[in-house]
Amino acid sequence: MASFGEFATVRCELPKVAEVRCGGQRYTLDDLRTLLGVKAPVIGVVPLPRIVEKDDEGRLASVVLEVGTQYTAILGSAPLIRFRDGAHCWPEVRKEGEWLLGVVEAPIHVIVFTGKSRCGKSTTCSRLGRHTEEEAELSNDTLDRFSVGHDGEPVTSGADVVVVPHPSGRGSVLLMDCEGSDNAMTHNSSHYRALATIAFAVASKVVHCEFGQISESTLTDLCATIAAKKMIKTTVSSDEDKWDHCSDLSLLVIAARFACNLQTMEKMLKEVPGTSRESRERNDVRRVLADEFKDFSMKSLPDLANDTYPNSMADLRTSLMGEASAVKRCGLELSGEQVADVFKRLCKELSDSEGVVEPYSIYTCVIRNHLQALAKEVRERFKQCLPPVERYREDLDDHEKDVAGALEDFDQKTREIESSEKEVCRQELAVELNGLFNALLEKNKELRSTEERAASMISLALQDSFSRQLPRLPLTRSMLTEELERFDSLVHQQVAAFDAQCARLYCSEVVRCTGKELKEKVQTMCSRVREADGARRIQVEAEIEDVLKAREKKFLNTLPQVECYVNDHVLDTVERDCIQVVHALAADLAHISEKGAWEEQKTKRRISDFTVTLETNVKQLRDRNEAFARRDSEMCVSIEEEMVAKAELIVAEAQARSSTSPEGRILSEKELEAAAFSLQALCNEYEVGTGDVACKHAVLARGKALVSTICRTTQDLRDANADLVHRVQEEVHAARDREASSFRSKFPEALQGWMSSEEMNMLDTREASLGAFDATVELIRYRGPAEKQICGDARGVLRNLLDELWKSVRDALDSQEQKDRAEAVSVASRLLTEAKSKLPPMPLEKSLEIEQLRCFDRRETWLQTYDSMTANLPCRPAVQAERSQLVERTSDMISKLFLDNEEKRRVESCVKAVHDIADKLLTSFKAEVPSLPLRTVLSPMDFSALDTVMESFMRRFSEDTKDVQCPPADGLQRLKDAMLHQVEVVRCASQEREQSLTKSLRGAADAQISALGAMGTDVWNAFSKARASFSDDAATIVGGEGACGAWETERVAAERRRVEQRVELVLQDLVAKRNRRWAFVRRGFAA
């Protein structure tokens, strides 16, 4: 969404016109009118944009709106009343003025301006309409809300209106500019009277305007205005209503030349003495004015050019707008839309009653429409407050107070209206509201009856359903408790089902009463079933008790007598007999349990009780037998304890044999097996001791416990021996680890640098560490063979650890040596690379001085750099070896440089000698070559002669350089190239001179040939002149007689021949022309 800063906002001063957003571009005033959707013309905007365009008359035509600025559009006047064409020319309200009034809210103050044409009414209205300082500054005498003319032709036709805000901030002011009373260009002179009648029927302030001063015609016009007022009927239809409208009339003198006040007016209204007809008519005018206007006000304005005009206009604006009351009838302040309706009705009534209007009926109609609109609004709001009665509503009676509330709302909205129509409208509204409410009540009553019938049908259906679910009486079987509880739950279900089915009903009282009746009836049905079931249960219980007593007596007579411990199968037989007795009892009671579920449960419960009684008797037999078993078990326990004591003695003896040291010694596997065999013999002894015990189960149980104890004792002996092995191993391993750590601790400081083999041999203390380990475990070794084996294994592991540590130290030293050697090689390589970059490339391009060579010899600096960069390397032998190689390589490089420089110096001396010989011969050759610039063009023979001279110089060069040692191979070629270059320069200069002379001579010849065209008849004289001119031109071109060579002479002769050939052709042409002319003459003479 775009922000506010991207648009310009334009709003209208009228309240009901929405503001619009515009882009920062050019808009005409018609464009703004279209955007705002207003029907009145837009005549300006405030604040005034910086970029504007004006028309020829200086009025604003278009503006360029600035984004981010809020503008207010200023509306001009809209036509309100125009007169139709025809015989009577009755007025009608225009749509533009009706729209303008339609957007104005109440209250509205109407000020009407009447008077003669061209007296300044429109100008005064326009100035009064400038209600803001910004608008006044913007105007600059060009912002006129009303159409203003500056010539004798009237501008206003009918009545135009403008709406401006009231200075108090409440409501608006309607300024109405009327057509002049003496408009000579109007179609009908009655227009003014019709407008005045309408003005007095609506306006609260009528201003009659006069220009310059008050005259007798002014009083006449006021009388005409009063006559228009007389056309208004003030009769009312009721004693309660009254015509409370009285328009104030003010006289405004525009551009007053003299002081105008009430005293002046009073003097003018005094009757004049005399009895003449004129005097009587004038006195009649004055009496009418004095009787009609008791509170007459008089105002004046200076000329527009007067400096006091702005202040006077401000005072006039304050006075008129303060004195003008709002349009109010019967206590109702009319809105703009209602005022427009009044104007329309007044115009219609003027046309219907031929100029006579009755405003009371018009205003009564407007008030009636207003009251009816309010009543309709209250009625619609009352309808919205009433609940929809599509179902029964219990709270509908509570809405009866809404009728009184609606009437009170109507009274509140019409409290200031004093018309008799108010009470009539209120009574009609009350009847309508009560009718609406009573209709809802009747509909609600019908809905209640419908719900009562529906609830009754639901209750009967549920009673029938419940009765079908109950058993029939008398009962053929007893009922279960669950069934009885289910019947109770069925009661609740029926009630819940009733509530559920009645949930769609809205009358809670109907549902509650019908539900209570249903619950009482189904509970009565349940009570009858319970009473029948109680009698049935008593009968069944008596039959079951008789059968139980007979079976119990028979079973007790068959139980055995237990005097000592017996086997379990005897008691198992008794239990099997109990089961058979129970099965027999079930068979005896089967005919009862088959009658129903409750009988079955009762039978099972009594059989269960009988089974418990039998099991109690069997349990007593088993308790007696278990007492005998406990006695036998105690005997077995005593024998077991004796065997356990013997096992402890065996273990003690085995441990005593290993007590050669405070810690003991480790038992061998053979000794452990012997102790285990002795412990196992105790189990056999237990079996012999318990052979006479009757309860074999107790014997077996205690035998298992003894075996478990013997096994556990044997395992404890083995575990104790294993713990001793573990402790010995830990002690031996600790001694081993101490020696390994001691050996390892000798190397960290020694490994900080590189060491020689002799230093390393001094650190090899592996044998000493082994000797220290043997001394530490010597006492442990002599405890027994197992301890000796453990010590030997630990010594072997220690030797392997020491060897691995020694190997790691040697590997670390070798790695350090390789690392230092690689670092030294890297430093030497960088220095060699630097030396190569500092030394000149080989072979040398030119020889160097001895001082320059010494500057390149920086071997000492390179060696110092190497020593400083390898000072921290611990492996010095590797560093020294690389240093020797660096010395050797740098010395070789410097030696090669010196040798190459010496060879280069020797070669340069030879080359210099050869070049000197070549330069000398080249100088001599240049003396043989023609000097530049050339005076003649050279011929091929001249160039052949130069080639011969060049070969002779080359032979001389070979003879002169045969004594030079190591002459350069390119010496002869260099001399030859120099001589060829010199010859080529001369050749080019000769060609350029040849081309230049050719072009110049041809141009001179062409000039002479061209001149032959103007030679006339003196052919021979022109021919001689052309030859002489060409010879002079040719001599000038070739540079005189001394500079003329063979080529120049030949070329001049060729061009001269071309000129002569052209002259011959011209001569031939002239002869031919002359012959043709003479032939023509002869033919003429012959004719």
What do you see in this structure?
This protein is of the alpha/beta class. Among the domains are: 282 residues, P-loop containing nucleotide triphosphate hydrolases (Rossmann fold), CATH 3.40.50.300; 85 residues; 83 residues; 81 residues, no CATH class; 99 residues, no CATH class. The chain contains 32 helices and 17 strands. The strands form four sheets. An eight-stranded mixed sheet has the order 9-8-11-12-10-13-14-15, with helices on both faces. The longest helix is centred in the middle third of the chain and has 60 residues.
How do you describe this structure in short?
This protein has 1087 residues and is of the alpha/beta class. It contains 32 helices and 17 strands. Helix 6 links the parallel strand 13 (205-211) and strand 14.
Strand content: 5-15%
Topology-level CATH name of the domain at 76-357: Rossmann fold
Name the CATH superfamily assignment of the domain at 76-357: P-loop containing nucleotide triphosphate hydrolases
Tell me the span between the first and last alpha carbons: 111 Å
Give me the side-by-side strand order of the main sheet: 9-8-11-12-10-13-14-15
Count of β-strands: 17
Main sheet: strands, sense, barrel: 8 strands, mixed
Text of the CATH class of the domain at 76-357? Alpha Beta
The pLDDT mean sits at 77
* Count of helical regions: 32
Low-confidence stretches: 235-244
CATH architecture of the domain at 76-357: 3-Layer(aba) Sandwich
Helix share bin: 55-70%
- Form type: flat
Work out the radius of gyration.
75 Å
Structural class call reads: alpha/beta
